Amino acid sequence: MEISSEGCSPRNRSDHLRKDGSEHETPLQKQGLELELPDHGYGHNNNDDIIQSMNALDILKETVRILRFNSCSFMAIAVLLICPVSSVVLSNVLVDDSILKSLSIRLMLVAKASGLPLRPLIKQSCQRFAEMVISSATNFPLYVTLLLLSKAAVVYSVDCTYSRKKFEASKFCVIIRKFWRKIVSTYMWVCTIIVSCITMFFVFLILFCSALSVLGFSLDVAVYAAVMVGLVFSVIFANAIIICNIAIVISVLEDVSGAQAMLRSSILIKGQTHVGLLIFLGSTIGLAFVEGLFEHRVKTLSYGDGSSRMWEGPLLVIMYSFVVLIDSMMSAVFYFSCRSSTIETSDGEGNSILEKMAISADTVGAQ
């Protein structure tokens, strides 16, 4: 299905095709596929050719259409790359309980020293944060290899769909070998930003609660203040995650990486942050729901001899992997949506770097 591509923007409206006088059905339409793909690139100066940015629901619908069109490739990515990471993350098989308990106690002592009462909410928050930190540290090799590779593969598959090209593993291997360093470089920046945000939050929270304690405020006021600080931080942290997710997509599709990808991401999503927040909120709720089910149904609860874990565990791992896959796909579609709403000044600027690398891969294969 090697159809020539002129761009990688989101779906084109059928009425727009009719307005341009195009009456011929594409091979995708002949297959009865609902996915609407563009015939134009970013280089057009006509404002009618610029697709309007999509809201979160439109992005979800577009993601489902892409998944239906190229389901085999995405399911292979989920099974081979995402499921192994999901099984390790959900089971916490690499987390040492003694280290987890020690870190939880230290966090509780810090919270108590800063003036926060050790109520069940505070204790549970300290335990969850300690578990998150240790899990992230122990699973980092999986994140920087399989999970990062799965994100790149998802972005490449979405790019192939919009370019009307078939996903080819050989081309992807050639491309990923050339781009792997800059993708990892961007991921290191992502990790640095996330760690910096969390560190700044805890430093500010400790200083703020300590100041309230010195000024003589009650413990209840300190708890409410901590909750408010947490809510404000969650919004800031969500914005940082959105920028980081789009930066990963940019490092795959464009010839920038690291700090430049972060800057490009922050500029690209300007005015569309609310859409990214809804995507982040939906993905977070979905992942938290599956994690809660796994904690309750597999780790804690079992029927009789525990045979229920034999099928509930793998099922929840598959569900978790599917949510991760959809999240990665929506990030890629969100990138294309934001990019299509910007005006490009040159015809060649709209072509993704993957298209150029695919041409190079074809040349290498021909030789």
Automatic annotation (TrEMBL):
Q: Where are the transmembrane segments?
A: 74-95, 140-158, 187-215, 221-253, 274-294, 314-336
Which residue intervals make up region (Disordered)?
1-31
Q: Which keywords are on file for this protein?
A: Membrane, Transmembrane, Transmembrane helix
Q: Does the keyword Transmembrane helix apply?
A: yes
* Compositionally biased tracts (Basic and acidic residues): 12-27
Q: Which PANTHER family match?
A: EXPRESSED PROTEIN-RELATED, OS08G0107100 PROTEIN-RELATED
Q: What is the protein name for this chain?
A: Son of sevenless
Q: Which organism does this sequence originate in?
A: Lupinus angustifolius (Narrow-leaved blue lupine)
